[in-house]
């Protein structure tokens, strides 16, 4: 018997009744959601425009002419943020994987490396990013051994330094979440420690922690704006310059919107991916 | 259907036409001792597995069967004794453990296939990573092996799309893809639904006929009796009795063996 015979059978009247009821429930929920959203938005809008300072705030933060005038400079600065982001992601990926792997090494011979990696992650998860930016951005060039590099270079180094500490912990959690029997199976086949790490453990570990990694990526997308404290003319710095020129804060709002638009696809993708992973793991349940 | 080059030709041993064991020892365990946190699990085990021989380890849970297999593959460090693979003392810490493990195939109770690799990549990983075979060559051999167990059409699937029996057969094929000198089977049917046990045991039987040297821990008494050349009964960390299946299962003089076997026939 083929399954098409089963599929072709019309549903019973009881099932049809249940489906009609569920459809009705869905329509009702959607309507309630739309109405409550509109009511809330209108109420919020009315409250804001009736605040005593609204017209002044509108003038200094939401000035269309200033936004248009400042846009070219801000977007030019924003392009620097995007480039710093790309280099940072690559740097963080490499450094954090090395750190995580070092921390999972066994055997007394690796103790110094292991302790160093542990100390590193402790230290840079404990220091505020902005302080690391100042220390790296002004301290390292101050040593006088490196050629003169632009501020964004040292900013990228600082970002990689701090984010690698966080991301390596995420990777380490992933490595430890791979069942030990996988390592046994790999070693039984004659794979060396590093071969089983590279071909068996890490690929599974990365899959397990992908949602957490994407979350850190979203955070990094915003924190690239902090390189402005070193004087790099990124979106934030450009907005600051424009703000001073027009005596108007609208350029900051423009910069903020650009960051938001950059982050939004990743935020949505992260939520979607996390939900999908959860659905897979909780297959066969509706509650 | 031939999975492994036949050894010294078919013989008349037990297990319906299995290759005859010859005198050359493949694995020799001498006085193996192993404790876990003060509990002595193995208390001086002597055991030899000869070429083309199938040896079944039987015994209650906790009798040390799995531990013994793990020590033989250097996944567990022994407290005393010696392990020889061929002529090499592999319990010597100067021995190259990775090299030795690549000479021994292992199949686990829970298959332990790599979930992120296709069935074919699972089977060919050791050839490519350890034996440095080219991908083309490794896949040719891998597909041949999968074809011989009727899983060629599943080669590009991921393991979770296979039934338990198919997964375990793929795991067996993975373990023999590099022609190991010895195959260790650790209760490979214990995690399977009863109706899937047969297909896995048939494959082991097939390997035995082809001359593969096998040391297996098992709870399948009928199977042990049918295919093993020799049965070793482990009790409380020592070899309580060893001999041909007919002797152990039918004419055992050992009260502990009789008591253990009685639980399976009750």
From TrEMBL, chain A:
Q: Which PROSITE patterns match?
A: ABC_TM1 (PS50928)
A single GO cellular-component term from the record reads: ATP-binding cassette (ABC) transporter complex
Which InterPro entries does the protein's record reference?
Answer: AA_ABC_transptr_permease_3TM (IPR010065), ArtM/GltK/GlnP/TcyL/YhdX-like (IPR043429), MetI-like (IPR000515), MetI-like_sf (IPR035906)
**Residue span(s) of domain ABC transmembrane type-1:** 78-270
According to the lineage, what is the superkingdom?
Answer: Bacteria
Q: Where, subcellularly, is it found?
A: Cell membrane
Q: Which organism is it from?
A: Orlajensenia leifsoniae
The record ties this protein, via Gene3D superfamilies, to:
MetI-like
| GO molecular function, a single term | transmembrane transporter activity
Chain ranges passing through the membrane: 29-48, 84-102, 123-140, 249-270
Q: Hey, which family's this protein in?
A: Belongs to the binding-protein-dependent transport system permease family. HisMQ subfamily.
What keyword terms does UniProt attach to this protein?
Amino-acid transport, Cell membrane, Membrane, Transmembrane, Transmembrane helix, Transport
Protein's name in the database: Amino acid ABC transporter permease
From TrEMBL, chain B:
Alphabetically, the GO molecular function entries are: ABC-type amino acid transporter activity; ATP binding; ATP hydrolysis activity
Q: Which GO terms describe its cellular component?
A: plasma membrane
Pfam family for this entry, one: ABC_tran
Family membership, please give it: Belongs to the ABC transporter superfamily.
Topology within the bilayer:
Peripheral membrane protein
Which PROSITE patterns does the record match to this protein? Answer: ABC_TRANSPORTER_1, ABC_TRANSPORTER_2
Q: State the UniProt keywords alphabetically.
A: Amino-acid transport, ATP-binding, Cell membrane, Membrane, Nucleotide-binding, Transport
Q: Which domain of life is it from?
A: Bacteria
Q: What is the lineage of its organism?
A: Bacteria, Bacillati, Actinomycetota, Actinomycetes, Micrococcales
The listed locations are: Cell membrane
| Family matches, as InterPro entries | AAA+_ATPase (IPR003593), ABC_ATPase_HisP-typ (IPR030679), ABC_transporter-like_ATP-bd (IPR003439), ABC_transporter-like_CS (IPR017871), MetN_ABC_transporter-like (IPR050086), P-loop_NTPase (IPR027417)
Please identify the protein, giving its name as recorded: Amino acid ABC transporter ATP-binding protein
- According to the record, the residues making up region (Disordered) are 1-20
Q: Where is the ABC transporter domain?
A: 27-261
């Amino acid at each position: 018997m083929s399954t098409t015979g089963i599929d072709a059978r019309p549903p019973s009247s009881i099932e049809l009744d249940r489906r009609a009821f569920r459809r009705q429930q869905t329509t009702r929920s959607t309507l309630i959601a739309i109405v409550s959203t509109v009511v809330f938005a209108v109420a919020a809008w009315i409250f804001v425009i009736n605040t005593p300072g609204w017209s002044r705030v509108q003038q200094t933060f939401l000035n269309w002419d200033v936004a248009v005038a400042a846009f070219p400079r801000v977007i030019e600065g924003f392009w620097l943020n995007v480039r710093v982001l790309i280099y940072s992601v690559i740097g963080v990926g490499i450094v954090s994987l090395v750190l995580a792997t070092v921390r999972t090494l066994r055997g007394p011979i690796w103790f110094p490396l292991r302790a160093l990696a542990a100390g590193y992650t402790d230290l840079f998860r404990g220091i505020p990013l902005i302080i690391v930016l100042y220390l790296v951005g002004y301290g390292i060039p101050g040593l006088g051994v490196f050629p003169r590099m632009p501020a964004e270079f040292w900013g990228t180094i600082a970002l990689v330094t701090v984010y690698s500490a966080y991301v390596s912990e995420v990777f380490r959690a992933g490595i430890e979440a791979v069942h030990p029997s996988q390592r046994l199976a790999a070693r039984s086949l004659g794979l060396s420690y590093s071969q089983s790490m590279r071909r068996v453990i890490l690929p599974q570990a990365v899959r397990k922690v992908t949602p957490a990694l994407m979350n850190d990526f979203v955070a990094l997308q915003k924190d690239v704006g902090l390189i402005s404290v070193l004087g790099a003319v990124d979106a934030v710095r450009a907005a600051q310059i424009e703000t001073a020129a027009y005596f108007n804060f609208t350029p900051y709002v423009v910069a903020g919107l650009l960051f938001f638009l950059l982050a939004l696809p990743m935020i949505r993708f992260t939520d979607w991916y996390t939900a999908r992973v959860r659905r897979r793991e909780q297959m066969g349940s509706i509650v | 259907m031939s999975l492994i080059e036949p050894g010294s030709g078919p013989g008349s041993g037990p297990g319906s036409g299995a290759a005859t064991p010859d005198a050359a020892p493949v694995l020799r365990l001498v006085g193996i001792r192993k404790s876990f946190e003060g509990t002595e699990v193995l208390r001086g085990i002597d055991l030899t597995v000869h070429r083309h021989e199938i040896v079944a380890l039987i015994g209650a849970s906790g009798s040390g069967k799995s531990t013994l297999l793990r020590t033989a593959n250097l996944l567990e460090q022994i407290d005393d004794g010696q392990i020889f693979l061929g002529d090499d003392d592999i319990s010597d810490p100067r021995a190259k453990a990775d090299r030795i493990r690549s000479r021994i195939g292992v199949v686990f109770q829970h298959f332990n296939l790599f979930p992120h690799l296709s069935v074919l990549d699972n089977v060919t990983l050791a050839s490519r990573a350890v034996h440095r075979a080219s991908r083309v060559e490794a896949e040719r051999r891998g597909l041949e092996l999968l074809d011989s167990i009727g899983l060629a059409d599943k080669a590009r699937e991921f393991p979770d799309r296979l039934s338990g029996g198919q997964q375990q057969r793929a795991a067996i094929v993975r373990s023999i893809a590099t022609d190991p000198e010895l195959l260790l089977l650790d209760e490979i049917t214990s995690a399977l639904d009863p109706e899937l046990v047969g297909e896995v045991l048939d494959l082991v039987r097939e390997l035995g006929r082809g001359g593969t040297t096998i040391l297996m821990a098992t709870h399948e008494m009928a199977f042990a009796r049918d295919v093993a050349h020799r049965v070793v009964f482990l009790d409380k960390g020592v070899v309580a009795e060893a001999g041909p299946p007919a002797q152990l299962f039918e004419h055992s003089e050992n009260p502990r063996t009789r008591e253990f076997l009685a639980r399976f026939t009750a």
